[in-house]
Amino acid sequence: YRKLPASVTDKKSMTPQDILATIEEHQAWLQRKSGGKRADLSGLNLSGFTLTGYTLKSAKISGANLKEADMSGADLSYADLFCANLDSANLENATLVRADLRGAHMRGVNFSGANLKEADMRGGALISGNATSRPSFLPANLARSDLDRASLEKANMSGADLTGKIAGNDEVGQ
Fold it and tell me: Could you write out the three-class secondary structure of the chain?
């Protein structure tokens, strides 16, 4: 179980310029430069964003809506994508080594050529912080995702939904 911090549930929408500034600060943080800060894009609506080729290694992106986002060629190694919505996202040739994808929605994602070595795709539970709401258990959903040429070495996919097209012309039943 993971409880989202109040900063996520209270976070206001960021403008595209704020998001790009956050990513630039993240690049500086990765290079240990002054003014650098780890990117926290948790809970944001990044649906349809183009993040092609960006290095978001170790970024906090839990609970974010990345539906239909283009992250082809992006480096998301060690990124926290816990319970993120990646439905129909393009992660072709992306690097997701040791990424936390527990409970992520990944229906129809293009993982073609992606490196998912040691990625964690088990189910997860999200607690909203509201005392009256129950935790939601979310299994990883990879249904209809394209995993052609994807590297899944030591990836933990316990409980993941792998129905539909996953590799080349191979189909997996329910």
Answer: CEECCHHHHCCCCCCHHHHHHHHHHHHHHHCCCCCCCCCECCCCECCCCECCCCECCCCECCCCECCCCECCCCECCCCECCCCECCCCECCCCECCCCECCCCECCCCECCCCECCCCECCCEEEECCCCCCCCEEECCECCCCECCCCECCCCECCCCECCEEEECCEEECC
